[in-house]
C-alpha cells in the first residue's frame, strides 16, 4: 500500500489510507477498476484470508494483469476477479448482497501501460458509483480517485464531484480532496461514507 509514511502523499495514497482505516479482517471489499491490480492487492491484504474482494475490469488485458499480480502475491484465493463493466456491478457479481460491503474503490482513467484511449467514461462511472452505494454496509466507504488530466477526465471528474455533492447529507458524508499545488489537472480523491 502507498502510505503517508512512504513520502509525499497523493490521491491514491489518500484514498487507500481512508479505506485502510475502515477495513477489518474478514470484510468484503470491491475494486471496481482492477487495472494492473495494485488496489486489488491492497484490498486483499487488508481483508485477510477470511475476507473477500470482488474485482472487475472491462479490459481483458487488465484482468490478466491483475490475475498475474494476485498469483505472484499468493492472494488469488481471497479475490473473485471478473471481466465486465462496473456499471453492471449487480450483474457481474450477483453474489454481492446489498449493504454488506465495507469499502469500494474506483480509480478512474486509463490502464497505465495500456491503451490510453480506453478510459472510464462519465455515464458508466456514475452508474457504477450509484450501484456501489447500494452495496455499501452501514459506515461503509466509497473511495474514488479522479484524474482530470486525461482527455475527457475533466468532465468526468466534475460529474463525479457534482454527483457526490448531491448525495443527501442525512445518509452520506462526502469529502472532496483538492491539492493546493499542481493545478486543476492534479488527481484528487472523493470519499463517500455511509452513516452508521
Ligand atoms: C486507472 S486504471 C485502474 C488502476 C488500478 N486500480 C490499479 O491499481 O492498477 C482504470 C481502469 O478502469 C478500467 N475501466 C474502464 N471502464 C470500465 C468499466 N466500465 N468497468 C470496469 N472497468 C473499467 C480500465 O480498463 C482501466 O484498467
Structure description:
By secondary structure, this protein is an alpha/beta fold. It has one domain (4-194): Vaccinia Virus protein VP39 (Rossmann fold). It contains six helices and seven strands, in the order αβαβαβαβαβαββ. It has a seven-stranded mixed beta sheet with strand order 3-2-1-4-5-7-6, with helices on both faces. Helix 3 links the parallel strand 2 (52-57) and strand 3. Helix 5 packs parallel to helix 6. The model has no long low-confidence stretch (mean pLDDT 95). Bound molecules: S-adenosylmethionine. Residues 33, 35-39, 56-59, 62, 85-87, 107, 109, 111, 118, 120, 124 line the site of S-adenosylmethionine (SAM).
The CATH topology corresponds to Rossmann fold
- On the 0 to 100 scale, the average pLDDT is 95
What structural category arises from helix and sheet content?
A: alpha/beta
Bulk shape: globular
What is the CA–CA distance across the termini? Answer: 27 Å
> Could you say how many structural domains there are in total?
1
> Strand share of the residues?
15-25%
Q: Which ions, cofactors or small ligands are bound in this entry?
A: S-adenosylmethionine
The total count of strands amounts to 7
**Could you tell me the radius of gyration in angstroms?**
15 Å
What CATH architecture do you see?
Answer: 3-Layer(aba) Sandwich
- Widest sheet: strand ordering: 3-2-1-4-5-7-6
Determine and state the CATH class. Alpha Beta
Uncertain segments:
none
How can the largest sheet be summarized?
Answer: 7 strands, mixed
CATH superfamily: Vaccinia Virus protein VP39
Give the count of helical stretches. 6
- The helix content, as a percent range, equals 25-40%
Instruction: Give the helices and strands as they follow along the chain.
Output: HEHEHEHEHEHEE
Amino acid at each position: 500500500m502507498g502510505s503517508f509514511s512512504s513520502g509525499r502523499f497523493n490521491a491514491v495514497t489518500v484514498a487507500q489510507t481512508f479505506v485502510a482505516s475502515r477495513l477489518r479482517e474478514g470484510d468484503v471489499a470491491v475494486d471496481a477498476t482492477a487495472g494492473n491490480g495494485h488496489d486489488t492487492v491492497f484490498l486483499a491484504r487488508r481483508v485477510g484470508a477470511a475476507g473477500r474482494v470482488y474485482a472487475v475490469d472491462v479490459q481483458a488485458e487488465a484482468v490478466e494483469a491483475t490475475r498475474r499480480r494476485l498469483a505472484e502475491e499468493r492472494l488469488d484465493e481471497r479475490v473473485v476477479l471478473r471481466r465486465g463493466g462496473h456499471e453492471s456491478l449487480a450483474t457481474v457479481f450477483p453474489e454481492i448482497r446489498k449493504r454488506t460491503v465495507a469499502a469500494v474503490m474506483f480509480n478512474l482513467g486509463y490502464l497505465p501501460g495500456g491503451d490510453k484511449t480506453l478510459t472510464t467514461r462519465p455515464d458508466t462511472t456514475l452508474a457504477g458509483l450509484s450501484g456501489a452505494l447500494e452495496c455499501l454496509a452501514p459506515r461503509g466507504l466509497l473511495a474514488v480517485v479522479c484524474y482530470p488530466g486525461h482527455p475527457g477526465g475533466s468532465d468526468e471528474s466534475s460529474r463525479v464531484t457534482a454527483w457526490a455533492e448531491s448525495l443527501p447529507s442525512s445518509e452520506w458524508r462526502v469529502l472532496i480532496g483538492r491539492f493546493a499545488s499542481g493545478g486543476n489537472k492534479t488527481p484528487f480523491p472523493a470519499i463517500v461514507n455511509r452513516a452508521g
